[in-house]
Amino acid sequence: RFTEVCGETRVNTNISDKFGNSTEILEAGPVITEQEITALISEFESAIDKSDIICVAGSLPQGTDSSFYKEFISIAKSKNKKIGFIDQEYKSLGFQAKIWESPRYVR
Fold first, then answer.
1. Residue 29 in contact with residue 10, Cβ under 8 Å?
2. Separation between Cα atoms, residue 102 and residue 41, nearest integer Å
3. What is the rounded distance in angstroms from the CA atom of residue 16 to the CA atom of residue 20?
4. For range 87-107, the mean pLDDT
5. Distance from the CA of 14 to the CA of which of 3, 45, 46, 79 falls in 20 to 30 A?
6. How far apart, in whole angstroms, are the C-alpha atoms of residue 54 and residue 58?
């Protein structure tokens, strides 16, 4: 399932050489509006009922703050769902709350 936003999807490019060196070119994603955030949360709440394990991944969208993913994890916890993975930069996680109820894996 996808929640559409007004902005363009970003493109990330990884350039590797024969020596194993690589350079990443990471474009900025679109700014996400409050209406788009609300739509995404609503979609998540609907989809989570059919899920057993939740994976939270990706960089924070522009227009959100460090508590953005915490909202999804709180919803999952309220529905007794397991948080399997968090693939996120530590600064984005807002580590003030014991890593959000102990996911299985954090990268």
1. yes
2. 21
3. 6
4. 52
5. 3
6. 13
How far apart are alpha carbons 100 and 87 in whole angstroms? Answer: 13
**Statement: the pTM of the whole predicted model exceeds 0.85:** no
Q: Is 40 left (phi over 0), alpha (psi -120 to 50) or beta?
A: alpha
Phi, psi for residue 63 in degrees, rounded to 5: 100, 0
- Quote the CA–CA distance of 66 and 25 in Å, as a whole number: 23
- Is beta strand 22-26 parallel, antiparallel or unpaired with respect to 12-16? antiparallel
Within 8 A by CB and 6+ apart from 10, the residues are 26, 27, 28, 29, 30
Q: What tens digit of pLDDT does each residue of 59-78 get?
A: 788 888 877 877 888 888 88
Least Cα distance to 39 among 6, 10, 9, 13 occurs for 6
Structure tokens at 5: 């936003």
